[in-house]
Amino acid sequence: MADEHCNTGLGLRLGFGEYVACRERSEKGNNNNNNKPMDCNLDFSFSLCPKEIKSLDDHVKHKQTMVDDQDYPVNINCDYSNNNKNTTTERKKLRLTKQQSTLLEDSFKLHTTLNQSQKQSLAEQLNLKPRQVEVWFQNRRARTKLKQTEVDCEFLKKCCESLSDENKRLKKEVQELQSLKEGGSQFIQQLPKAAMCPTCCDKIMKKNEAAVIDHVVLKNNKWHSSYSGTN
DNA sequence: TAATCTTGTCATATTACGTCA
DNA sequence: GGTGACGTAATATGACAAGAT
């Protein structure tokens, strides 16, 4: 089975073979626009699945050897997955060294995307494949975006909390003012009719309302000055 | 010139490996 | 030693732009 999968272009083509092979072709600078998908299959199957690997066990051993022999293990994923995923899917994961990570991070600080030549030279410096550099940058951009989203989310959450608190406080204040206003009116209404002339009574009522409005305006101004200060 | 195809690159989602508690 | 969480390299997929036909 493993033999079959490793040495037939078809199985690989249905996975990611075409994509990778086309990439590799472009990375080699072979961009002559001879659009022949079959070329991709051939390139891919030879590069990823050397003929000496005859069985699945051999494949695993071979991968182990590659890992042991190199500072930067080469990923030689041979995708058996589509047919017998549960037993044979194996993907050796590259771990970047500290120096590699540092250099990649430094490059990312300079430019978050790479052009062809930047990618190529960085890959050479790092002793990685251009595709690996490209993938690293893609993942790095995704991580950056995710972190930024988290930060934004946290900020919005705090804004929401503070607005909610402010809303509660204002509601309470409105209630207080409402009762203050009602209390004042009631006091005047409770006075004996003969105790105050109607004109004076009216004046006091209006003054009372004006005082409430002043109070609200003052509070509002205070709120504006403090809230705009925090933002 | 418009339509179509191919290719390369990106963002995004997902998978799977390695490490650590 | 087994296990789950986590970080991250690798893969899959779809969208889009640019160039060729």
Short précis:
This protein has nine helices and no strands. The chain is mainly α. The chain has a domain at 1-95.
Describe the sheet with the most strands.
Answer: none
Number of helices: 9
Compute the average pLDDT: 63
Strand proportion, as a percent range, falls in under 5%
Q: How many angstroms does the end-to-end distance come to? A: 65 Å
- Write down how many β-strands occur, each being a DSSP E stretch of 2 or more residues: 0
In angstroms, what is the radius of gyration?
Answer: 37 Å
Contiguous low-pLDDT stretches (5 residues minimum) are 1-89
List the helices and strands in order.
Answer: HHHHHHHHH
Helix amount: over 70%
**How would you classify the helix and strand content by structural class?**
mainly alpha
Task: State the shape.
Answer: rod-shaped
Question: Would you write up a description of this structure?
Answer:
This protein is an all-alpha fold and 231 residues long. The protein has a domain at 1-95. The protein has nine helices and no strands. The chain has helices at residues 2-7, 9-27, 37-48, 56-69, 81-88, 98-110, 116-126, 130-190, 198-230. The two termini are 65 Å apart. Mean pLDDT is 63; it is low at 1-89. It binds a DNA duplex (21 and 21 nucleotides) through residues 15-16, 19-20, 22-23, 26, 31, 33, 35, 75, 77, 79, 89-96, 113, 116, 131-132, 134-136, 138-139, 141-143, 145.
Give the SSE layout:
Elements: H1 2-7, H2 9-27, H3 37-48, H4 56-69, H5 81-88, H6 98-110, H7 116-126, H8 130-190, H9 198-230
Helix pairs in contact: 2-3, 7-8, 8-9
The structure holds a DNA duplex (21 and 21 nucleotides).
Family: Belongs to the HD-ZIP homeobox family. Class II subfamily.
GO molecular function: DNA-binding transcription factor activity, RNA polymerase II-specific; sequence-specific DNA binding
Main location: nucleus
